[in-house]
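Hi L., both proteins are below.
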Amino acid sequence: MTSSLNPVTPTLTPPPAPIERHWTGPLMVFGGGVCIGFAPIGLRLGLDDLGPQAIAFWRYALASPVLLALVFLVERRAPRRPNRYVLLAGTFFALDMALWHWSLTLTTVANATFIVNLGNVSVGFVAWLFLRERPTNVWFGAILLAVVGAAALSLGGEVGGKGDIRGDLLALSAALLVSGYMLSSKLARRTLGGLETIFWLTIVEICIAGVIVSLSGEAFFPDDLNGFRAPLFLALVVQVMGQGLIIGGLGRTPAAIAGVVVVVQPVVAAAISWTLFDEPLSALQAGGAAAILVAIWLSQRGKPLPID
């Protein structure tokens, strides 16, 4: 018989560990891609008041205090010291945006967005080479479908449209920087949280964009406060929400998967520009958009994604 003075201590079962869902990271990247699809729309709407490089500068500048406030609100501390990868990623991104914004003034929204996204789909090969993240076999089919769909979306419009080879070449140059940005951002996430990473990215982008505006000869300020509407829209929707979701999702998504998922951008851009900029979608373009969505779904088939 057990003495009442020495009761048996009950065994406490520790609570189960939280279940990591492999789809949360890709879902964040997808949401970010949808938000970034509004980037060319906001840019074109703001060109009456500011140049393309000045719009990029104010997109970053107006987003930075919001991002800093989010770091303090969510993390309850100041941002940690940036690492070299976040500085490199910010440089890649600022130069990428400078070239892309320039290209959007010379070619169609669909063309520029498609060409830049060639850099996104190549991220998987770069990550395979440098990070040893070998994609699943299904991914190779998904990447082919995404490229074909994006090509149909971009090139399936009316012959002799508004495309300009100069703008296309600028977009191609921007695409070369995208892979470096995505790879560097993923490496930066190994020691920094998502909000910290996008905050430091934005600070680097402000510095580089300011130099680019000065060299371009564009005016820093619009004629009146209404000229800040488009940059403010881009700051909140594209920089804070779009880039923030992508950077956050990269921490738990293989780079190969993220590169396919963000190709949703031209689908969003082309759909909206249909009515705003008189760039209608043909049947071939609509089929290309559908192919991209199927590719995004297909890219995540197979074994569960690893969590960093």
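That was the first. Here is the second:
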Amino acid sequence: MQNTRQQERRLGDMIRSRLSPLTAEFVMFVLKQGWSALFGILILLAIIGTRAIWQDDWPLARYDFLVIFAISTQIAFLYFKLETWEEARVILLFHLTGTAMEIFKIHAGSWAYPGDGVLKIMQVPLFSGFMYAAVGSYMARVIRVFQMRFDPFPTFHWHILLAVLIYVNFFAHHFLPDIRLALFAATLLLYGRTRIWFRMGTQSRYWWMPLPLAAFFSSFFLWLAENIGTLTKTWIYAGQADGQAVSFAKMGSWYLLLYVSFATVTLVTRSALHPPQR
């Protein structure tokens, strides 16, 4: 981990020596966002690549290869110290909660996985849990890479309670009234004043962004990833025609799920829930 941080600092020093201060900060922001999302980017590249080359008569199913690829990538992240073991335990929790949701949603008819594969649980390919894990990996890494702090932060038990209510509603709305509008309002009420404080390097200034705005931007990029998944026919939403974009309603779903992800990650990053040191 220390070696990785040294490489990041060298890259930052090189960029700052060649660009104006503001341009350098922007370039570092983009590069660090990509670096933080590396696990998810690799999974998306694997989804696109296998769709382009995979043949039905190959002995290994595409879905099964994606499982093997995801596991191998996770092992590599730990071996090369791109993630800590503490972060990996939280990401495993993402995998489990994500797979549980996938099983429920598949049987509720919300979406389907049309391909074959051996590595499935109740019609859900195991690689699907790694897509949720990719979100967890991004959150854990982006907090560390940008030295993020969240302030002012709401009382922690309200933070966890809202995440639980959001997660439960994804199941319960099939049987009970959907309360997502109230949950949207609750995110603004609870986190409306919360700023994400971050910086590009150890000596650079702190920048900030409202937490709900960051969640909105993140949900947009996850919506783009959803479109990659459906265009490659890795999964298909109920009622979605060939070539049709994923409904913008999925952005709302991801916006809410991001708060569940955030609450999960803060179980091991409680030190980030404090004001930044000036």
